[in-house]
């Protein structure tokens, strides 16, 4: 059994392009960064802790495969989380406006019981055009930025702010398809075989 340790509809949609059947069991962990923790350390720790929270359940066997991921928008050394208000979203999007930031999406694939654990971190560079305060307010009113890291969704209306991307589009959305495929193959799962029509 394959388990996605995330409630994200975007991750669910991306994983469904690779495997036919999987369960969704969101992991509930503390996502507070440690003091002085570097963004690349934080994002990998988040994916690993999510995977471990599910993999440690006694009902799982070593044949079960858990996939966990975490996405952070990083500007300089600052991790931009999800906005909790219009003012918070304004602060984030003003900072991103006209700048290039990093999107770090980590991945952890492991089996039940944690006999095997593999992690990676995919870093993409995203360049924003200049965004006006009026656009930020209008964008906020669409509801899209509310639960998104960095207050935008590249696969939605937020894509209109993106001038250039260097890296993995699927990773910026929330699940790096290439890396998922590579790690699943290490666990004996081939998406191409999964998707062949009988």
Helices and strands: which structural class?
A: alpha/beta
Q: What is CATH's topology name?
A: Maf protein
Q: Taking all residues together, what is the mean pLDDT?
A: 94
Q: Could you tell me the number of beta strands?
A: 7
Based on CA inertia axes, which overall geometry fits?
A: globular
Distance between the termini: 20 Å
Alpha-carbon Rg, integer: 17 Å
CATH architecture label: Alpha-Beta Complex
Assigned CATH class: Alpha Beta
Order of helices and strands: EHEHEEHEEHEHHH
Main β-sheet: number of strands, strand sense, barrel status?
A: 7 strands, mixed
Q: How much strand?
A: 15-25%
* Count of discrete structural domains: 1
Provide a count of the helices: 7
Give the fraction of residues assigned to helices: 25-40%
Could you list the spans in which at least 5 consecutive residues all have pLDDT below 50? Answer: none
Short description:
By secondary structure, the chain is an alpha/beta fold. The protein is built from 7 helices and 7 strands, in the order βαβαββαββαβααα.
Characterise this structure.
The chain has 198 residues and is an alpha/beta fold. It has a single domain, classed as Maf protein (Alpha-Beta Complex), CATH 3.90.950. It is 33% helix and 24% strand. It is built from seven helices and seven strands. It has helices at 9-16, 39-55, 86-96, 133-141, 169-173, 177-186, 191-195, and strands at residues 2-4, 23-24, 65-75, 78-80, 100-111, 117-128, 162-166. Strands 1, 2, 3, 4, 5, 6 and 7 form a seven-stranded mixed sheet that branches. Helix 1 links the parallel strand 1 (2-4) and strand 2 (23-24). Helix 3 packs across helix 4 (133-141). The longest helix has 17 residues, at 39-55. It is globular, with a radius of gyration of 17 Å. The active site is at 70 (proton acceptor). It is found in: Cytoplasm. It is an enzyme of class 3 (hydrolase).
């Amino acid at each position: 059994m394959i388990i996605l340790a995330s409630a994200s509809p975007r991750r669910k949609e991306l994983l469904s392009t690779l495997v036919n059947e999987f369960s969704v069991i969101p992991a509930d962990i503390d996502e507070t960064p440690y003091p002085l923790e570097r963004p690349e350390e934080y994002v990998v720790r988040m994916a690993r802790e999510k995977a471990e929270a599910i993999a440690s359940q006694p009902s799982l066997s070593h044949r079960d495969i858990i996939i966990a991921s975490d996405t952070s928008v990083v500007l300089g050394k600052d991790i931009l989380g999800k906005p909790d208000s219009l003012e918070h979203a304004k602060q984030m999007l003003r900072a991103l406006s006209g700048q290039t930031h990093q999107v770090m999406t980590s991945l952890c694939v492991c089996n039940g019981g944690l006999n095997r654990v593999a992690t990676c971190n995919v870093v993409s560079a995203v360049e924003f055009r200049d965004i006006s305060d009026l656009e930020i307010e209008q964008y906020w009113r669409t509801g899209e930025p509310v639960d998104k890291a960095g207050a935008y969704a590249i696969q939605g209306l937020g894509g209109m702010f993106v001038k250039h991307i260097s890296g993995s589009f699927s990773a910026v959305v929330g699940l790096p398809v290439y890396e998922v495929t590579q790690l699943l193959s290490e666990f004996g799962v081939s998406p191409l075989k999964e998707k062949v029509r009988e």
